[in-house]
Amino acid sequence: MERNRLESFSDGVLAIIITIMVLELGVPKSPDISSLYPIIPIFLGYILSFIYVGIYWNNHHHLFQTLHKVSGTLLWVNLILLFWLSLLPFTTAWMTENHFAPLPTMLYGIVLLMASSSYFILEKQIIKTEGKNSKLKQAVGNDTKGKLSIVVYLIAISFALIHPLISQILYLIVAIFWIIPDRRIERVLD
Amino acid sequence: MERNRLESFSDGVLAIIITIMVLELGVPKSPDISSLYPIIPIFLGYILSFIYVGIYWNNHHHLFQTLHKVSGTLLWVNLILLFWLSLLPFTTAWMTENHFAPLPTMLYGIVLLMASSSYFILEKQIIKTEGKNSKLKQAVGNDTKGKLSIVVYLIAISFALIHPLISQILYLIVAIFWIIPDRRIERVLD
Amino acid sequence: MERNRLESFSDGVLAIIITIMVLELGVPKSPDISSLYPIIPIFLGYILSFIYVGIYWNNHHHLFQTLHKVSGTLLWVNLILLFWLSLLPFTTAWMTENHFAPLPTMLYGIVLLMASSSYFILEKQIIKTEGKNSKLKQAVGNDTKGKLSIVVYLIAISFALIHPLISQILYLIVAIFWIIPDRRIERVLD
Amino acid sequence: MERNRLESFSDGVLAIIITIMVLELGVPKSPDISSLYPIIPIFLGYILSFIYVGIYWNNHHHLFQTLHKVSGTLLWVNLILLFWLSLLPFTTAWMTENHFAPLPTMLYGIVLLMASSSYFILEKQIIKTEGKNSKLKQAVGNDTKGKLSIVVYLIAISFALIHPLISQILYLIVAIFWIIPDRRIERVLD
Q1: B94 has pLDDT over 90
Q2: Domain total in chain D
Q3: Residues A140, A184: contact at Cβ < 8 Å?
Q4: Where is C102: in which H helix or E strand?
Q5: How distant is the Cα of C65 from the closest Cα of chain D, in angstroms?
Q6: Do A17 and D19 make contact, defined as CB atoms within 8 angstroms?
Q7: Cβ neighbours of A141 (radius 10 Å)
Q8: By CB count within 10 A, which of A105, C135, D43, D80 is most buried?
Q9: What's the CA dihedral at C163, C169, C172, C176 to 10 degrees?
Q10: How many Cβ pairs closer than 8 A exist between chain B and C?
Q11: Nearest CB to D190: which of A24, A69, A93?
Q12: Res D152 pLDDT > 80
């Protein structure tokens, strides 16, 4: 498959994921300010997940930069990444509509963990495909940032059932950490 | 990131926003003309927001015309713009399903204000990136039209709680004002 | 705006319209064959509207074939076409969920009429833009097919309140009539 | 129509199909683990259908590889394929929300059968268009894999009303069978 078709399909899926989450903001039946209160946690969750999808979209384009043809294996690893991201609207809604309760907070983290692990595997696969002089390899090195995120998600998941607030703060920290664009890759590839 | 991937992602998000708003037109259970009456305000709101998304899509493509590579900062400012626009289906539904009540009218304006401000910042950032001979700068000048819209939104927001009708008329005026395509930019870039 | 961005945005909107209509096929709560009966008219309506959106997508790509830059006016006429098509999921659902009652049948036709008229105006505008040797003009001539469809819709709309079945059959006939691809245009442009 | 516009429209439709299925995972009102139990079958069905859409997207790009212009007939056969795939969210939801009951299991298979048959016809049409030295023909031969899938679906459908579990296992086997990328085509076309 040509790279740009994979990219445009992934972009389509990410654009839909990011947009359907807004449908969870159920429209209040009354025009009072108090009718907005129950939506506040859902709105905060929307922001967090919007940022996460933004990050993935943002980083996704770095991956295939040097490949022109994409093999069947890469296609499926990419689909697995999209699969986990497609669950974000569900886990976001479950967490935020239940006042950030422990179990939904844990599941939210598990989906983030699975998505970031898929991303990591995808990255490794592409580096392998590119071979010895892989530009992506030069750009991300050992991808300490990616590994660190996975570790933080694991910590967050372990805390979720006891202190869900800690987990939520950790999810936020990882998000902020990634908003800063990956200048390493930009430097090497541009 | 290459410009065209940012454009196609933005187009995807805008296409979804513009289309899911139609889902708010709940299908009446009866085939009588009277069953359409409650939908009329929702339909009018749909038209207004459709025009707004159309305007943003319309103007959005001017922005990146001269850039080939898009930096991480621009990516995020663009995502912030999309974030505010993604709230339009919510604010449209809240306003129209509550008979254009004061508070929802105010919130509708706040989201328009945030979107237009994000657009303005995005424009400024791109001009900065393009440097001294920025074509976009030549095209939009000081973007009096953009600044004026922001001022009108601010006026509309202040009126919303007292005379929501004035605010709604102002939102409509700004929309009509922008439907007329930006010939300034077309002149310079074509 | 460059032609291909207008095309991909239109494709996006059409792809969403065609797909969200399937959401109206409410999933029955029981696994019995009888639970499918109420869905049958909705399914038939889905087929009809799917064909219509398919036809528009199909013909849409002919339009901009020879243009490289698209003017602001064309952009808005195209958006008006998309606006009317975006109402198809609503009119389809209203008609089919109310057993093809007269008024919804009429509204279904009105939306088709508005869409085809917008298409016709868009075509005329493009021919005007292309100038004297317009390839599109050579291809569609006076667009008898387009004009005829508009006339048939008008007839169908007038019958809707008295004999809705006649209108529905006319909608179907126009659809079948257009499924046959527009070889005139293919001949000239290829 | 140019090939790439057909591809991007198909990608759009497939991206929406794959993503709206996740909306069927209704968000539980309670944060308990037990509230997830009823979602488990829906989730399993989501995985299966996600894989199927992935497979179609995956294979779809092989088809038009050697064509630059797409005829009207091919456009409509492609739309028929998309039509059947667009029914997957419905049949998936009906099957999984009714505990994999016989009739919904049968309908799920019928839609798979119709989709794979449409795909087969599309393939044949393209081979015919390409003529004697068709690269697609060289790549897929007689498409034993495609024919075999159709046969397995037929068997699965016949078992559905008696032993739906057998049918479900057969659907899964065909899916796994196709996940392995079509190296035959990759070999010839690359």
Answers
A1: yes
A2: 1
A3: yes
A4: helix C102-130
A5: 9
A6: yes
A7: 10
A8: A105
A9: -150
A10: 77
A11: A69
A12: yes
Q: Which residue segment(s) compose the domain that B91 sits in?
A: 3-189
* Max intra-chain CA distance, chain C: 62
Helix axes C72-86, C3-20, angle to 10 degrees: 10
Q: Is C154 on the interface with D (CB under 8 A)?
A: no
* φ, ψ at C55 (rounded to 5°): -60, -45
- Check CB contact of A73 with chain B, cutoff 8 Å: no
Two tokens, residue B21: 């708003």
Q: How many CA atoms lie within 13 A of C169 on its CB side?
A: 5
Is the CB of residue D116 less than 8 Å from the CB of residue D146?
yes
C contacts of B22 (beta carbons < 8 Å): 86-87, 89-90
- Where helices occur in B98-143 by DSSP H, the ranges are 102-130, 135-140
D13 touches chain C (CB under 8 A): yes
Q: Where are the alpha helices (DSSP H) in chain D?
A: 3-20, 39-63, 72-86, 88-97, 102-130, 135-140, 144-160, 164-179, 183-189
Residue D103's pLDDT band, with cuts at 50, 70 and 90, is very high
- In this complex, the residue of C11, C179, C190 whose CB is nearest that of residue D9 is C11
Q: Where are the alpha helices (DSSP H) in A37-101?
A: 40-63, 72-86, 88-97
Q: How many CB pairs under 8 A join A and D?
A: 77
- Phi and psi torsions of A69, nearest 5°: -110, 140
Nearest to B42 by CA among B106, B2, B100, B83: B100
Structure-derived torsion over alpha carbons of residues C52, C53, C59, C60, reported in degrees to the nearest 10: 150
Residues 6+ apart with CB under 8 A from C126: C63, C64, C67, C74, C134, C136
Confirm or reject contact between B68 and chain A (CB < 8 A).
no
Work out the number of other CB atoms within 10 angstroms of the CB of residue A180: 11
d(CA B181, CA B58): 8
Give bridge partners of residue D69 from the DSSP assignment: D2
Residue ranges, chain A, pLDDT below 50: 190
Q: Round to whole Å and give the CA distance between D16 and A59.
A: 22
